[in-house]
Amino acid sequence: MPASRAPYTPADIARLKPRVVGALAAGESLDDVAALPDMPSRPTLRKWARDDPAFAQALADSREVAAERPRFPFDAHVAAAFLAHVREGRPVAWLLRRPDMPHRRRLDAWKAARPDFAAAFSEAKALADGERRRLGLVHDPGRADDRPARRRRSRMTHGEAASDRVILALIRGATLPELTRRPDMPTMKALRRWRREVEGFDGAVRLALAHGRRARGAARARAACSPRVVADVVRAILDGASLHSLGRRPDMPGRTTLYAWVGAHPDFATAVARASRLRDERLLDEAQTLAEHALDPGARKAARVRLKRLGQNTPHPGQRRR
Question: The pTM is what?
Fold first, then answer.
């Protein structure tokens, strides 16, 4: 059983009574004051009021002061920020949920106590509502930049800037589903409407999609150029193969991919060129060795085969012949 508290001394009572009166005048209830750890309980406070008529009168006066004081005092800075947000088109219901903005009861109290604020609020709301209806703006609280208003994308009208953004994104490899999910791009419905109604836009989209497919393929090719695959390609070239012949092998990337790697990866191009040069030198040495035995018909045929292969090879695979 917890030990009982020592009785309050006259000095303690004289020190605590003004604090109780001040707390009640500030708007707190007697229960709130008694709940504080360094304050007496409610029965003790009521006993003090019965024993001291002056203290009881002070409590009554403090309650009257608290009743006359507004429960939700007007804050000019918060009110100005609130009105600015409303004029920008932010919905009132969304603002009332923010911790730095007034809640519904505080807003109603401000409107009742300050007619000038009520008039300014009505004017700001009317301006914002008209602008939102004209532009088709809706609230989007999930935006990362915390901007609640954005144009309704399904109603987005075609413009040069919007069209350029769409075409550029498609050229860079974005697919139509990926594109239409972006918040700054039109929806699939709006994009279809543009392609149907705007002259030349559908053709531009088709060309951009073709470029985008090539861009995605090149990106996949760049991502698949691993050191193990490069080593296998170099080893096969040293054994006498070419990029063209390697592209037909099932265990190697395709011919288009290999030549794309040459253009996209300088290290791969250097390794392939070095391997091709060593391969050609080996073929030339073999041809010269066979030419020394030209009296043998089989040797002459083998030499011709190696010389033919040597003439077909290019010292820089993947580059255009001049």
Answer: 0.32
245 and 290 assigned to the same domain:
yes
- Tell me, yes or no, whether 238 and 186 share the same domain: no
Residue 31 CB coordination number (10 Å): 9
pLDDT of residue 146: 43
Judge if 265 and 305 occupy the same domain.
yes
Which among 208, 163, 210 is positioned nearest to 185, based on CA atoms? 163
Low-confidence ranges of the chain (pLDDT < 50): 1-2, 131, 133-151, 320-322
**Measured distance CA(117)–CA(114) in Å, rounded:** 5
pLDDT at 293: 60
Q: What is the pLDDT of residue 150?
A: 43
Q: What's the confidence (pLDDT) of residue 137?
A: 47
In this structure, what are the phi and psi dihedrals at residue 251, rounded to the nearest 5 degrees? Answer: -95, 10
Tokens of residue 49, six digits: 């009021």
- Write out the H or E segment, with its range, that includes residue 119: helix 115-135
pLDDT at 149: 40
Look at residue 43 and tell me if it is in a domain: yes
Pairing mode, strands 137-139 and 149-151: antiparallel
Domain with 106, as residue range(s), is: 76-151
Residues 238 and 257 in one domain: yes
Which of these, 104, 97, 18, lies nearest to 61 by C-alpha position? 18
- CB-based contact 87:129 (threshold 8 Å): no
